[in-house]
Structure prediction request, 202 residues.
Amino acid sequence: MIISSSKTFEEVLVSLEGIDNVFVIGCNVCAARLHVGGEPEVLDMCAKLKAAGKNVVGWALPTAACSIQSYEKLVEKGPGIQKADAILVMACGSGTSVVSMLVDVPVYPSNNTDSLGGRSQEQVIPHLCEMCGACNIQEFGGICPKANCPKGLLNGPCGGSISGKCEVDTEQECAWELIYRQLEKTGRLKLLEKIIGPRDYN
Ligand code: SF4
Ligand code: SF4
Prediction:
């Protein structure tokens, strides 16, 4: 799940300065689950834009903003897009980019894209993967230190953790403590004896 968060409405208005006819596109996957681009948020955005004097020519909620097939599909969902001077996308940067490729008017993001995370047991986990392009998460019991240890230590821990909390961010658990517990639980503590080399950036 791509974690994105809403820009302030004031920021959105500044980006839309001088534009009258706005079409709003949400995303019914990640952004909807995070409550930053699902139907209620899109409708709320449309109402706020109208109240701010914009002419909202329509809105659409594709299943996933990052995988819209064609402009025609967008027109099917919201014919008003044909009258738009600009599109406001309430999704991650990937969704905003895909929309930009399909239309010939300016596209503006209403969200900031923060990280690659997930959602489990009704909890959003904001930071799970750094998209390093060389996944070896199996070496760490399925908990990625590149994403979860602020020092990105592949051969941790650093020795600074205090009562299981990270010395850099005392709000978060030490990633290496979590890795240790996970490896212990699955009977693979032996993995800690292995030295993990740096990624080959060539
Ligand atoms: S090693 Fe970590 S950062 Fe790299 S792809 Fe796997 S989970 Fe993502
Ligand atoms: S305390 Fe743990 S999570 Fe924090 S920097 Fe050190 S090894 Fe990484």
Summary: Residues 2-114 form a domain with the Rossmann fold fold (CATH 3.40.50.2300).
